[in-house]
Amino acid sequence: MISRTVLACAALALSVLLVAGQPSAQAADEDVVAKMEASRIERILEDFGLEYEELDNGVYTFRIEGLKVALFNKGETMQLYAGFSGRKVTLSRINEWNKTLTVDELEELMI
Fold it and tell me: How far apart are CA 73 and CA 92, in angstroms?
């Protein structure tokens, strides 16, 4: 079973990716975000009810269910980092989870 913490991190990452978006042939120009400003990232974190700290220009830390998470926003690229302890999980199990996770599972956390 996937923990709520892992799903919450994945939901946050998905929401950031959906907001940041990647250009596609079908996307209207106004739907494409080429650069994510700090104020927009902060608004997303606040909308999730997360208390965050900006450590450096574009580097944020916050907690999701006690798990410390770091978000690195470089404008045109972003990384979400979370460290997990207490369980031994193989890389193949993580890769399988990444392949099989559905948007519906992520949306359940956002509701």
Answer: 28
Phi/psi for 53 (5° steps) reads: -130, 135
88 SS3 class: coil
SS3 73: strand
How much is the pTM?
0.56
Per-residue pLDDT, 18: 52
Closest to 92 measured CA to CA, from 84, 100, 80: 100
Contact (CB, 8 A) for 12 and 63: no
For the chain, which residues make up each domain, given as ranges?
4-99
- Given pLDDT bands bounded at 50, 70 and 90, which one contains residue 1? very low
Residues 6 or more apart in contact with residue 10 via CB below 8 angstroms: 101, 106
Q: Which amino acid is at 68?
A: K
If 0-12 CB within 10 Å is exposed, 13-18 middle and 19+ buried, where does residue 80 land? middle
Please give the backbone phi and psi of residue 17, each rounded to the nearest 5 degrees, phi first: -65, -40
The SS3 of residue 82 is: strand
